[in-house]
Amino acid sequence: MRILVVGAGATGGYFGARLAQAGLDVAFLVRAQRAQQLKRDGLQIISPHGDLTLKPQLLQAHELSQPFDLIILSVKSFALNQAMDDIAPAVGEQTMIMPILNGMQHIATLRQRFGEARIVGGLCKIIATLNDQQQIVQMTPLHQLIYGEFSGEMTPRIEQLDRLLRQANIEAQLSDNVQRELWEKWLFLASLGAVCCLMRGDTAQVMAAPQGEQLIGALFAEVLATLVASGYEDRPAVTARLLESLCQADKPMTSSMYRDLMQGNAIEAQQIIGDLVERAQRHSVPTPLLSATWTQLNVWQQQRQA
Ligand SMILES: NC(=O)C1=CN([C@@H]2O[C@H](COP(=O)(O)OP(=O)(O)OC[C@H]3O[C@@H](n4cnc5c(N)ncnc54)[C@H](OP(=O)(O)O)[C@@H]3O)[C@@H](O)[C@H]2O)C=CC1
Ligand SMILES: CC(C)(CO)C(=O)C(=O)O
Question: Where is the Ketopantoate reductase C-terminal domain (predicted)?
Answer without folding.
Answer: 177-298
